[in-house]
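hey so u asked for the seq, here:
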Amino acid sequence: MRALTWHGKHDVRVETHPDPEIVNPRDAIIEVTSTAICGSDLHLYDGVIPGLLAGDILGHEFMGRVVETGPKSTLKKGQRVVVPFTISCGHCFFCERQQYSACDNSNPAEKQDLSEPLYGHAMSGLFGYSHLTGGYPGGQAEYVRVPFSDIGPIVIPDGLDDDQVLFLSDILPTGWMAAENAGIEEGDTVAVWGCGPVGLFAIQSALLMGAGKVIAIDEYPTRLALARKLGAEVIDFKRTRVLEALMEMSGGLGPDAVIDAVGMEAHGMMPDTIMDNMKQRVGIGADSAHALREAIMAVRKGGRVSIPGVYGGFLDKFPLGALMEKGLTVRTGQTHVQRYTEDLLRRIGEGEIDTTFLISHRLPLEDAARGYENFRFNQNEWTKVVLKPGTEVAQ
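ran it, structure tokens below
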């Protein structure tokens, strides 16, 4: 089969790999029909997530048709399914509490030593996201093996096309959980840093949950326009003093809740960002977190901080004093995708949520390297890339 593989910083290639096979009774093999490049894939592309090996297959947002099942899979051949990026056994301490992204059994024992020293506990299994999370081949490929297929994939009914449901695999539930973690109450003012895919879905979700005002912060005109179209007020951080603007826009109190949808690769020309980026380049202090620092400083006293943005290492200049003295509540974590997929699929089917506005480019899998390069370096025009295995590159 053909698959997109990682070979180093800004070096990804489409290569030929052996087809996946059933390994365990609960496995299924999926023929991928649509797969997206995620903003968190760019952390791998930029080489700031450890634990990747040359030749690893990337991709954790994908869907397709079931072509083979193990004897204990509940899926049937021919079904169309969306697969959560989190791999979860369904029966451990965490899965039984619907904390699927904390599953204790999905990261193989021989891989757990890679993340346990870093985080105190081993990470759970994720598709296509380094050997810290199990080293599972990802879904930017023609075929993929899906472990625990009786727990993760959600069957898609006829009448919904791939573009409408693909993002149930990650970014739509992630945006939804980000808004849920912000503890939104009717009429709240919510500020969202980052108008990438997760930030835009967090804006959409916050408004559906009753926020009275959502303020989106970014620098790219196209992404700010998408946020405005969803109903947000916007701040261009290159033209506006963000903290002053937020105080003014929230009646002098500060936002009730803030959402950091930027994560570990904040950019810009603020002094802390420049220092973070210099350290990141030489491997000292892995995370650049200007957005998170600013969010903590901006939120009102007693407010809530939600962090869906990905962080991987350590952080200095963290405003712990502001966090404590203002009495803030912080919630974060990888998304418990399976907890949300059924409800979000219903909302899509009823027309309450439309995810297709986000897609700027559809490319053949063979053109994936171009998709990565542009999604990384032309973020104003390339808001979301969907790859279509089996289609041909235009001449």
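The mean pLDDT is 94. The longest strand covers residues 28-37.
lmk if thats what u needed
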